[in-house]
Amino acid sequence: KALKIKTNELVELFEDVCQGKRLNYYPPCPQPEHVIGVNAHSDMGALTILLQANEIEGLQIRKDGEWIPLKPLPNAFVINIGDMLEVIDITLITT
Questions:
Q1: What are the protein's GO molecular function terms (predicted)?
Q2: What is the mean pLDDT of each run of 10 residues along the chain (95 residues)?
């Protein structure tokens, strides 16, 4: 509802799409300055569901060209809109 996309439009778009998953786990490091993590990227799928375990900071979003850290919320998931839904949104707005 928040995306203002009709349910049947989403169903049609994702009927034949395969799903994927990737798990990243970073154990605590005594020297955090040596941790590499995941490089800056955009999520190419439709949705990304993230859990920041142990309230450890590190997740950032880019808004207006600036990187903004996301403070972890206990027992909460972060839901990212991926590139695919962004393209769909632009297409629906322009048509």
A1: L-ascorbic acid binding; metal ion binding
A2: 74 74 78 77 79 77 86 85 70 49
